[in-house]
Design a protein that fits this description.
This protein has 116 residues and is mainly beta. It has one domain (3-106): Metal Binding Protein, Guanine Nucleotide Exchange Factor, Chain A (Beta Complex), CATH 2.170.150. The chain is built from two helices and ten strands, in the order βββαββββββαβ. The strands form three sheets. Strands 4-9-8-7-6 form a five-stranded antiparallel β-sheet, with no helix packed on it. A three-stranded antiparallel β-sheet has the order 1-2-5, with no helix packed on it. The model has no long low-confidence stretch (mean pLDDT 97). InterPro entries: CENP-V-like (IPR052355), CENP-V/GFA (IPR006913), Mss4-like_sf (IPR011057). One of its GO terms (molecular function) is carbon-sulfur lyase activity.
Length: 116
């Protein structure tokens, strides 16, 4: 069953093929500042609409997107089209959809391993 995430102002919507079963709480330097929970998908299973601006840093393997109107972080994608993984900010999903997902904790600041 699909699920729809929206930014605060509603200008950006993300429709995912299925509600997430689990989401990731990463403690790396950017994720902890953004305050996001990531739900991972194959890019073909995600439909993003609305205007976003991007931010890229470090080794430039992840492009973060945010709504141009309200600034909510919506998702990240890879600049490499061969990479079949992207992250959707699950905090933009309806509360009942997010509540049904298991939260996993990723030590992105250190070991790059899940610690739960």
């Amino acid at each position: 069953m699909s699920a729809t995430a929206t930014c605060h102002c509603g200008a950006c919507t993300i429709v995912v093929a299925a509600a997430p079963v689990e989401v990731t709480d990463c403690n790396c330097s950017i994720c902890r500042r953004y305050g996001v929970l990531w739900a991972y998908y194959v890019p073909g299973d995600v439909d993003v609409s609305g205007s976003t601006e991007t931010y890229v840093w470090g080794n430039r393997t992840v492009v973060f997107h945010r709504c141009t109107m309200c600034g909510c972080v919506t998702h990240w994608a890879s600049p490499d089209p061969a990479r079949q993984r992207m992250g959707v900010n699950a905090r933009l999903l309806p509360p009942e959809v997010l509540a049904a997902a298991r939260v996993r904790h990723l030590d992105g600041a250190g070991t790059e391993e899940y610690v739960d």
